[in-house]
Design brief:
With 409 residues, this protein is an alpha+beta fold. It is built from seven helices and 22 strands. The protein folds into two domains: 149 residues, Probable inorganic polyphosphate/atp-NAD kinase, domain 1 (Rossmann fold, 3-Layer(aba) Sandwich), CATH 3.40.50; 139 residues, Probable inorganic polyphosphate/atp-NAD kinase, domain 2 (Tumour Suppressor Smad4, Sandwich).
Length: 409
């Protein structure tokens, strides 16, 4: 039996005639096609706070309005006047700390704010009359007065700055004085010149065509997660425990001998039930912290996403996923779980979640703006190489390379 000839079958359909596969028919019928006119549409682009409408004509095509990962530039409209200086715990960087305070206060004439416990130590310094501090009641208003924040330390100091400003946070410039410093690309060796560049700008912005010559600095708007703890049988009008995290929120089994059982919801849809040591929701900034250690992907901080990473899941098919930044997630401890769970935010404020309790997580409207050394992408790849030795291997020799055994080639 001869093989089925698709071309022959197609021609029979066109002509309505019958023939044989050995003598295929050639269609002489032309079938002009008429297509309906393409409908015009509106594209409404919105960021949740404002929107714009774009008309797509019948002859047009959909396209992105602009890349989602644009470079962000900070330009002072007025000279900054007030700065908050933070340093990591301990006295290893005390001399550098005093050096920064004196430069900002004595040479640049700025009002310098320090933390209360450091202010007590500085009382013995008679030349620091420009230094001030704040009390507990004033901490919530710091963002209204501080122009930018200087961090002397590692990534933990930046996380501490994020925790001080649970809402809006001023731009942060960080200098490496820790053990890893993935987020700290500036060195204390050139602290005065780097701070001068932040205050007066170091990048020429002529390409923006704003009608005047201005200078600024590159910044990265680092997404944070807004996390709310909802207790079982909690009334709607009861104040909820609110946290803003820069790296990740983690729900785990704690010291319990059983696997954690966690229901994961996206709005009203059950995504999955986790049976594992725990699960974390991380920001792109936090993707290079605990998340990457648990097998998650490394994500550029300008990618708008939430990372969903299981911790030692009891399933070979449970792989990390990346969700859009508009996802609204809930990690809930079901009533039939064998044991309660524990939650922590950026490694702090650890507390128990009883059966029926949950943590609701969504993107915060208040990012952490960090000032770049060069720009967002080059800084990030430099940190991957410096801290992780990313893709570090001996380079492959070209074809024709001969190893003579005596060290020469």
């Amino acid at each position: 039996m001869p093989a089925f000839d698709h071309r022959y079958a197609f021609q029979c359909v066109l002509t309505g005639k019958q023939g044989t596969a050995e003598e295929p028919l050639v269609s002489t019928i032309h079938m002009p096609r008429t297509w309906p006119k393409k409908a015009e549409i509106y594209i409404v682009r919105t960021d949740g706070m404002s929107c714009s409408r774009e008309t797509v004509r019948a002859s047009g095509c959909l396209s992105f309005a602009h890349p989602s990962t644009q470079q962000q530039l900070l330009v002072w409209r007025e000279r900054p006047r007030c700065v908050l200086v933070l340093k990591k715990l301990g006295d290893e960087q005390w001399d550098s700390y005093l050096r920064v305070l004196r430069y900002l206060g004595a040479e640049e004439g700025m009002r310098v704010i320090v933390e209360p416990h450091e202010y007590l130590k500085l009382a013995q310094q008679s030349d620091l009359d420009f230094v001030d501090t704040y009390n507990h009641d004033e901490a919530g208003r710091l963002h209204q007065h501080v122009d930018f924040v200087v961090c002397l330390g590692g990534d933990g100091t930046i996380l501490h700055a994020s925790s001080l400003f649970q809402r809006a946070i001023p731009p942060v410039v960080s200098f490496s004085a820790g053990s890893l410093g993935f987020l700290t690309n500036l060195s204390l060796k050139n602290v005065e010149s780097d701070l001068h560049a932040v205050i007066y700008g170091c990048e020429d912005l002529d390409q923006c065509s704003l009608g005047e010559k201005m200078s600024g600095v590159h910044i990265t708007l680092r997404m944070r997660l807004e996390c709310r703890i909802v207790r079982q049988n909690q009334k709607d009008n009861t104040p909820q425990e609110l946290y803003e995290v820069l790296n990740e929120v983690v729900v785990d089994r704690g010291a319990n001998p059983y696997l954690a059982k966690i229901e994961c919801w996206e709005r009203d849809t059950l995504i999955t039930k986790v049976q594992a040591d725990g699960v974390m929701l991380a920001t792109p900034t936090g993707s290079t912290a605990y998340s990457v250690a648990a097998g998650g992907s490394m994500v550029h901080p300008n990618v708008p996403a939430i990372l969903f990473t299981p911790i030692c899941p009891h399933s070979l098919s449970f792989r990390p996923v990346v969700l859009p930044d508009y996802a609204e997630l809930e990690l809930r401890i079901p009533g039939d779980a064998r044991c309660p769970a524990w939650v922590c935010f950026d490694g702090k404020q650890r507390q128990e979640l009883a059966r029926g309790d949950s943590v609701r997580v969504r993107m915060s409207t208040n990012p952490v703006p960090t000032i770049s050394k060069t720009d967002q992408t080059r800084d990030w790849f430099a940190s991957l190489e410096r801290c992780f030795g990313w893709n570090d291997r001996a380079e492959q020799k070209p074809l024709g390379y001969i190893n003579r055994g005596d060290g020469s080639s």
